[in-house]
Structures are given as C-alpha cells and as structure tokens.
Design a protein that fits this description.
This protein is of the alpha+beta class. The chain has a single domain, classed as Glutamine Phosphoribosylpyrophosphate, subunit 1, domain 1 (4-Layer Sandwich). The chain has a seven-stranded antiparallel beta sheet with strand order 3-2-4-1-12-11-13, with helices on one face. Strands 5-6-7-8-14-15 form a six-stranded antiparallel beta sheet, covered by helices on one side. A hairpin with a 2-residue loop joins strand 2 and strand 3.
C-alpha cells in the first residue's frame, strides 16, 4: 500500500527530515517504488512536484529536502501501484481547481469495483489517469461543487464541507481500504480506515497524527541591536506510520479530522 504524509502549521515551515524518512520508505525501507509527489500550498495555489519513479532514488527529492519552500499546508504521497501503470498521470497527489482555489488529494488503499458504480461516474471533474484514487477525487469534488459555487468566491462553512467529506468517506469504506488526505487551501482533512500492517493483516490504524507545540524564534538580529520576539509555532503531522520516536496517536477506524493552522478544528467518528 502507499504511504501518506501531510503537515498543517500556524506559520509557514519546511519539511526536511520527515520527507526524507518518507522517501526512504519509497524504495529502500519499503516496497513503494512506483512514484512520489508533494504539494506545497502558497495561499490558494500549490507548488506541485511529482515523479513516476522511486523517491529514494530521486535527485529532486534530495533537492526538496534542502530547499523545500516554507508552507503552512503540505500533502505528500509515496506510491505502490495497484491501479494504473507507473506513469506521471497516475502519480499522486492529484490537484484540481474549485471555487478559485487549488484542491489536493492523496489516497492509500484499493477500492475494488468502484469504477463500475454509477454514483462515482465523474461529472464536471474528469480523471487524467487510470487510478481509482483520481476517480474518487473527481467524485468528491463533484459532491462539493455546489457548496463552493454557492459562496461566489468565499469559503463555505467548515461544518458543511466536513459533512460532505465525512459522508463521502463512509461511502468509500464499503469498497476497501480508504485512507485519504484532502486539502481545499483552507483546511486539511484526513480520513483513517485500515491498511496492511507489519504482520500482513489489513486492519486499523490507517493513519497516525502528531501534534507539536513549540517556540520558534524569528530571525536573530541581536548583533545589529534588534531582537525579535519569539512566536509560538503549532504543527499537526499526519502519516501512514509514525516517522519519529515521538508520541504519534493512531486515528480510529472511520475517523475524519479537519486541521487548520496546526490545530485539529474538528473530528468525527462513525
């Protein structure tokens, strides 16, 4: 199965060590050699990098580890192909525009037979590639479109967005493992289901979360006679498996959480 990683923070930050650990699972410590991608939000737009090759062998990944742009919202995916050949069009995360902002989606799991269901046939949003993951992303945006269009350029209420995302996640669970990350430029949503564990069993947890709160100084200009006050940094990290020795918390089966500026704003359990 694929590996997911995401970050939400109060002030822009960079991912270095965590992305490196994730990349090592993409070909060295794990079997995920079929592609990688990472999306960095900057306002309503996204800086997206993807390759249909092993992340652990990528010079571009090594460059990102040293020169990643600061961002408040990051979504990353390491691929092990189950639907669709290793190709750029099948490499996650996927992005689409809706309501004047870029939306990002990454999925972990295998949704057997979903392409034959009429209620998942894409409408406005169409897949470019052959994966079940891109198909369900397009279907999710079709369900969200009316809500976003009704706001005429504004943000729909979080509770309404979350209600649609959670109902959609419940539909997906009937087809197989359906862990996913979804970002709409304002909020990062995560749905945890189940995945292949180290012992080979398919069971929860599907995602883990780590909440960090720390003091991070601004630029130290004391030599010039100027001292900047420290600012409190808050960060939420999400990953398929814990990436550090810190106390990551497994999400419950079927749980959906919504994160903004490094805080968990809402969480729903079935």
């Amino acid at each position: 199965m694929c590996e997911l990683f995401a970050l939400s923070s109060r002030i822009p930050t960079t991912v270095g060590f965590t992305l490196e650990r994730l990349a090592r699972r993409g070909g060295i410590e794990g079997p995920h050699r079929d592609g990688w991608g990472v999306a960095f939000y900057e306002g309503a737009d996204v800086f997206l990098l993807r390759e249909p090759r092993a992340a652990a062998e990528s010079d571009l990944v090594r460059y990102i580890e040293q020169h990643a742009p600061p961002s408040q919202l990051v979504v990353s995916h390491i691929r092990r192909a189950t639907h669709g050949e290793p190709a750029l069009r099948n490499t996650q995360p996927f992005i689409r525009e809706l309501g004047g902002t870029v939306h990002v989606f990454a999925h972990n799991g295998e949704l057997s037979g979903i392409e034959r269901r009429r209620d998942f046939v894409p409408n406005r949003f169409r897949p470019v590639g052959d994966t079940d993951s891109e198909l369900v992303f397009c279907s999710l945006l079709d369900r969200l479109e009316n809500l976003w269009q009704a706001e005429a350029g504004g943000l729909p209420p979080l509770q309404e967005r979350l209600r649609i995302v959670a109902a959609f996640a419940a539909e997906l669970r009937g087809f197989g493992p359906a862990n996913f990350l979804y970002a709409d430029g304002d909020v990062l949503y995560a749905h945890a289901h189940k995945r292949i564990q180290a012992n080979g069993e398919v069971k929860p947890p599907g995602l883990h979360v780590l909440v960090r709160q720390c003091e991070e100084s601004g630029s130290d200009l004391e030599r010039a006679g100027i001292t900047l006050a420290t600012v409190a940094q808050e960060v939420c990290l999400l990953a398929s498996v814990p990436l550090t020795d810190e106390p990551w918390t497994p999400l419950a089966e079927g749980e959906v959480i919504a994160m903004k500026h490094g805080r968990i704003e809402e969480r729903l359990r079935p």
